[in-house]
Give the backbone structure.
Amino acid sequence: MVVAILKYIIRSIVFLLLTILTQIGGVVYLLSLLTHRLTDKQTTKTWQKHLYRTASFVALYNIATFLLVPLLARPFGRVPLPLTQKDHLRPLTLLTCLLNRHYVVPAMKKVAIETAREMNQRYPGTETNYLDANFPFLKGFPLIPHLSHNDGKKLDLAFYYLEAATDRVTNEAPSPIGYGVCEEPLPDEVCTYCACSSKGNWQYSFLTHIIPQGKKDKLLFDASRTKTLAELFAQREEVEKIFIEPHLKTRLHLQSGKIRFHGCQAVRHDDHLHIQLK
Ligand SMILES: [Zn+2]
């Protein structure tokens, strides 16, 4: 009895975690439980049973993520962004796609690709890295930890950088996930994260404490390309708002009224741009 209850609790936690992280992972996990009877027959060793069960989940999850979900999401009004570099737009990390966090409404895909192409024309060699977008299904389903990425109309993009040693342009970013390695305010610039932290918004700078900062000195913020990227999006009729940290809006002389401060309830935006459609 106790074992059965424990098993139920563990399975519920796994289901919840997978759903929060990937949206479809929880459902795939439940389906994979149906395969246990079949996989358990293949061996008598306990460790091998667990291995086969895990392999079954991984296989089902990959089939769902890369074959089924892109097809099923389309009737629900969401399309995936490119998995690899296409039209000069690519995920900074494949993890974003593996977790199904790269879905947008078709209008956002069009704006993102056209802007990435334009960036490449103006700055040859430039590839634009996208970060978290939205999940494939259900309006209102939260993409934790983001507050608003729940309707297909939101997309985060990494800033551009230069190699510190050579001053040459690079398409790399200093954070492995694009978030958490920030372009800090200079001494004479407004320090928004200081103000937010002093108001008790502990989450505002949270990622900077857990993301490795090792590449921070190797890559320099590319103000020129990042300014152009923000301006190209701001010029688009379909774009409603762009979030960037206030000290960067001032430093880059960004004039558009669409480019705004997101508020202390969110997180720092001096590591990425947040684009949102009307
Ligand atoms: Zn965002």
Remarks:
- The chain has a mean pLDDT of 92.
- The chain has two domains: 2-74, 90-277.
- The CA atoms of residues 163 and 219 lie 5 Å apart.
